[in-house]
Amino acid sequence: MMNRTQQPAITEPIHLHLHLQPARHFTLDNGVPVYAVEAGAQEVVQLELVFHAGNWYEQKNIQAATTNFLLKNGTRTKNAFELNEHFEMYGAYLNRGCYHERASLSLHSLTKYLPQLLPAMSEILSESVFPEEELNIYRQNQKQRLAVNLKKADFVANRMIDAYLFGEQHPYGKYSNPADYDALTREDLLQFYAQYYLKGNCTIFIAGKLPANVEQLLNQFFGQLPLNGTALAKPDFSITPSAQKKYSVMNDANGVQAAIRLARPFPNRHHPDFLKAQLLNALFGGFFGSRLMSNIREDKGYTYGIHSYIQAHQQQSAWMVTTEAGRDVSRATIEETYKEMLDLQKEPVTAEELSLIKNFMIGTLLGDVDGPFHIIERWKSYILNEMPADYFYTSIQTIKDTTGEELQVLAKKYLNPDDFYELEVI
């Protein structure tokens, strides 16, 4: 029997040997690639159809996001209420999302109900009609939501910093205005839907306790649609960052907080510095025990939370610092952030701090391989971003091998205050 008076040995995450379960790949009759992960003990499944239908491809602002949102708001045989009732009757959740390059339609369901739910998903992809009344409701709701959000400093800051980094006409930098909703017509949605969904470029990801006939089911309901027939031409956009780098914007004269954004351009995932920079970012402001949190929250008490992260895009990424602080300490918060950047340049990270960061990052990866849904998300990221098959293991080895001196070199290269756009919205 186990001796419960003796504490079991503790193994630090950095000494673990992590394994990412491979995804099975097959192709439907129409050429749609499918990536499947069979795992988990519960009879549940996650299915996601990913399309090249993000705002990168739209001809009018918010055309992609509106089309995606209204996908499940009416088909030739079912109105929005009937569609939602159908999925709720089986305890399923149908969601959609629109991003810069891609858009998705995803389903979470009990495995046994897939035969009843896949026909409805197929109908949404082949027979959506975008009723005028649904567009009017959406237009009214979004304009009201936008009016409320524009009073919030953090919302305004998020919009403006992306525009400064990439340009207001770039898909990464443009944002919505009330006039955009008024200018959008039902015909705009139908045109985008026909080109990028009905005859679009699609990839399917499925994970969980899969039915034995999963290939047959997917082929029956999605393999006969006119998907992936032609390659989509991706429009070319030039990045036009703002020449000015420091901004202070008055948004609410009665507000008490300032939304602070510091950001600089950064290479995409394929750059050799990207993986090591993730380690440096974790140390700088990527977790609760980071230097920014220890100084600006714990020591100075300027904010409830301050974070840095690499906003990863396909064309070009951005290194971002975000926080909200009292107006009276907003300038001091920015100066302390710059101080932490310079401190990382002055001397290498200590062995103790480096060990803490490495264990944190390996522990994060450990969570990312826990369960079928996390596993398929990891594979989806690699596949859609065209990363090599061994990228997961390369990431782990990079974390383990990176030295404090290498992080110091990266800090000198990328954490220079003069390279950052600085925005205060007060």
Summary?
The chain is of the alpha+beta class and 426 residues long. It has helices spanning 63-69, 80-89, 114-127, 132-149, 153-166, 178-183, 186-198, 214-221, 274-286, 291-299, 330-346, 351-368, 372-384, 391-401, 404-414; strands at 24-27, 33-38, 44-51, 93-98, 103-110, 202-208, 246-249, 257-266, 306-311, 317-326, 421-425.
Output the strand order for the largest sheet. 1-2-6-3-5-4
Q: Could you tell me the mean pLDDT? A: 95
Q: Kindly name the structural category.
A: alpha+beta
Q: How many domains, as an integer?
A: 2
Amino-to-carboxy terminus distance = 63 Å
Note the run of SSEs as H and E. EEEHHEEHHHHHEHEEHHEEHHHHHE
| Count of individual helical segments | 15
What gross morphology would you assign?
A: globular
**Could you give the count of β-strands?**
11
Biggest sheet, in brief? 6 strands, mixed
pLDDT below 50 for ≥5 consecutive residues: which ranges? none
